Amino acid sequence: MAEVKVKNVVNMRLEGSCPSHSRTDVLVRDTELTIDEPFERGGTNLGPSPTETLLAALAGCTNVISQKCAAKNGVTFQSISVDVKSTFDRRGVTLQEEIDVPFENIEVLIDVTTDADDETMEKVKADLTRFCPVAKVFRQAGSNVTDVWTITRP
Q: From the CA atom positions of the chain, what is the Rg in Å?
C-alpha cells in the first residue's frame, strides 16, 4: 500500500443553513452541528451558542493537541478531561458597544492521569502552548489564556 502524504496546508469548507434568526445548522464533512441560542434569548436551545461553540472548540483542540504532544514525548494519558472557564463581555453581542477582546480571561483546566515524570510533562505543556491553533487564535486576539494542569499519578 502506498504511503499517504499529509498536506501541510488544506482548504476547509463548512456549509451553514439558517432556519431561524438564532439557529445555524452547519455541515462539516459528513457531520452536522447545530449552533443555537437558549430559549431566553429567542432560540430553540438545540445546540450551544456561537460563543459557547468557540470555547468548546478550545476544549476539543486542547484535548487533541495535548494527546499528540504527549505521544510525541512518549507519554500516555490513562485519562484526560478539559474544562474551560471564561469571562465574556457581552456588550458587543448586545450591540451596546464594540468590544476588542470579548473573552478577556480564559482558564483551561486540564486534568490528566499519567505516570510521566514532571520534566517530561513540562515538555508536553510547552508543546501544547506552541501547537494548539485555537488557543493561539485566542491569545493573538488579546485573550489571556491560562492552562491549569492537574496531574494525577496512578
A: 18
* Buried/exposed 36-48: b ≥16 CB within 10 Å, e otherwise: bbeeeeebeeebb
HSE on the CB side for 46, CA within 13 Å? 15
C-alpha 143: how far from its chain's center?
Answer: 13
DSSP 39: G
- Per-residue pLDDT, averaged over 4-28, amounts to 93
Closest to 110 measured CA to CA, from 136, 73, 147, 138: 147
- Domains, in order of start, for the chain: 14-47 (no CATH), 50-152 (3.30.300.20)
Residue 9 gets which letter from DSSP?
Answer: S
Q: What is the rounded distance in angstroms from the CA atom of residue 118 to the CA atom of residue 17?
A: 47
- What pLDDT digit, counting tens, does each position of 117-140 carry? 999 999 999 999 999 999 999 999
Give residue-wise pLDDT tens across range 52-83: 999 999 999 999 999 999 999 999 999 999 99
